[in-house]
Protein: D-methionine transport system ATP-binding protein
Amino acid sequence: MIQLQALHKSYTVDGRQVAALKGVDLHVRPGEVFGVIGASGAGKSTLLRVINLLERPDQGQVKVAGQTLSALDGAGLRAARQRIAMIFQHFNLLSSRTVAQNVAWPMRIAGWPPARIEARVQALLARVGLTEHTHKYPAQLSGGQKQRVGIARALALEPQVLLCDEATSALDPETTRSILDLLAEINQELKLTIVLITHEMDVVRRICDRVAVLEGGRIVEEGPVAQVFLHPQSPTARRFVMAAEHVDEGEQRDDHAQVQGHLWRLTFLGERTYEPLLGEVARHANLDFGILSGRIDRIKRVPYGQLTIAITGGDLPAARQLLADRGVQVEELRA
Ligand SMILES: Nc1ncnc2c1ncn2[C@@H]1O[C@H](COP(=O)(O)OP(=O)(O)OP(=O)(O)O)[C@@H](O)[C@H]1O
Structure:
C-alpha cells in the first residue's frame, strides 16, 4: 500500500542543512497497522508528512496504492491526497464550526451535494459515538471527543490510508485506550491501512501489526511487534521497551547481582501464557526457581508473558528441553 524508497529530506535552518531523513526504505502492507516509534527529533513527523507529500522529499520515491506520488503535482496530487487522510495530536479542528460542520468540511471541499454530505456526516458521527454532540463546538468537547471528530472527518472521503500523527499523545491513558480501540475497529471494519507515529511502545503494543524504530533519520530496527517488543535488538528499541515496562536497566542489573543461580528469561506467546508450566518444569528437572520480574499482557489481541527467573540446582538441559517442547523461548541472561 505504501512504498518509500531511499528517502532523504533536509531542512535549512539558519542557513544550515539539518537532515531529518537519511535514506529511509519502508513498505506498509494493505490493511495493516504500522507503527513508527522514535524519540523527539528522530524524523517521525517528517516521515509521516512525506507519505502524503505535505513534505516533498529531496531524494527518493513515495508510492501509495501503486501510484508514484513523488512524481505528481497540482491536481494529480490533490486527487491522490483524498485517499490519504490524517489525524493530529492537537486535533486541528475548525473552532468556529460545529462538530457536524467539521466532519462535513472535506466533503464540501470535494463538492459533494448537501443531502449526501448530511447523510454521511450522520453515519460517521454515529460510528465514532458522537451523535449527541453533533451541534456542539470543539471548545465544548473533551480531548477524546475532539479526536473522535478528527477521526470522523478523516474517514469522510473513504480514504485507503490513515496517517496518525501522535494522535493520542495529548490524551490521558484511559482516553488513549478508547481512541486506540476505535482505530483498531475501523482498521478491521474498513480494511483501512493505518500508519501511526508515536514515542510510546504501549501504543505500538496495543494496536500495531508491525513497527519500525526510527533514530536520527534512519530505521534502526523493523519487524512484527511481537518480535521487536519481546526481543528488541537495537539499543533504541530496548530503551522504548524498558520505558514501557517501567524498568530501569541499572536497577535491574543491581537486583540481578544480588541473587544466586542461573538467570533465564522465558517468553510465552499465545494461549500457552496461561498454562501452569513452571511447577511442572521444577518437578521434571528437579530444580528450584525464584521469579525476579515478570509481566503478562497482550500484544494486540495475543497474550504474552515474559518472566525472568533465577534457577538453582537441577537438570538444566532437561528444563530447557521441556520449555522448548512447550513453545517457550529461553534466553540465558547469566550462566
Ligand atoms: N519545518 C522544519 N524546519 C526546520 N527543521 C525542521 C522542520 N521540521 C523538522 N525539522 C527538524 O528535522 C528533524 C526531525 O524532526 P521531526 O519533527 O520529523 O522529528 P520527530 O521525530 O517527529 O520529533 P517530535 O517527536 O519532537 O515531533 C529535527 O532535527 C527537527 O528540528
Notes: The mean pLDDT is 93. The radius of gyration is 24 Å.
